[in-house]
Amino acid sequence: MTKRFPWKSNYRKIPPFMQNALNDIDGDLIAVAAIKKIKRRDIEAGQYSHVGLSMEGSSIIAAGPTQPPAGAGKWSERNAHGWDRRREDWPMVQKTWTFESPNFGDGARNGWTMRSWTKDVYQHQIFEPQGMTIEASLLDDKGGEQVVIKFALAPMLSRSMAEFDLILLWAINVLQENTGITGVFGSDATREEYISTVTLDWQIFPPGTADEVVARLLGSAHPTNAPDFEKHVRDRVRLFERFEPKAYIRGQGGFGSYFGAQFAEDLVVFENLKYGNAVYLLYQDWDEASQRSRLDLLRDQDAHFDRVVHTDGWQDRLTSLLHDKLFERGLRRRRSGYRSKRGAR
Q: What is the value of pTM for the model shown?
């Protein structure tokens, strides 16, 4: 549901005043933040409750970092749920879909056959939920009608990050949609401190019993938005076990906790425990891929991975896709009754 605010929602491109401010910043790290005078009665009316501002008697209360609601605008929705960006400016690639169909129109009587369909498609650039948060802090309150509030977005941005201009536009719009103001400042934080917020410390575990694997994957991660968290992990482990993984992986850090299984040097299946909206099959050398940042890893062309969204029947789609990728690598026999159809080039 879209949340309506009495201010400009967002920008189509980085505005000139923002570009001028960027030009005046010498360092690599950029903090997206802004200062705003706010009427006390607007806070009391709940206009800023979604970013953690409220009244307690005559005092202003700032609740700390808050993830803005998806309904605040287009960019806030992408921040919460991710973004599938079709890239018609990139070369087309071949993609394969696997499905079952009834033999002679009657699967109950004649059985079912697995078929594969391959065709050229446009690539998509997949952005996971970014998990940007906004922190409000009270800078000045003289007891009058207005107070001065600073709104700061996390994480900070690095000019050297992939697609800096696009991510900057995303960040300033998340702040704009939720507060009606946006800006940029230089940061005194070190680059190492910034990198620690967006990278993952991948841990590799050998296969073991289901209970051992689950215990290792869970670690200390307990997302508040996943009430059936342990069951969720255990179900995935049971699914992975069917395909004999060589190792299990867990990534801690940044804004989410990732877990999955490695089946070959260039075949890793994983998902985010925090968001849990899709499973990824990554087709890159894992030693190289694991060195990349959390944000960079899944901002690549989807020629390097497949994304299985958690809609009806996703487990069957994942199973079929994983089976085919293992067969391509000589790690699985072709399923009986399999037929393939190549799409016209």
A: 0.66
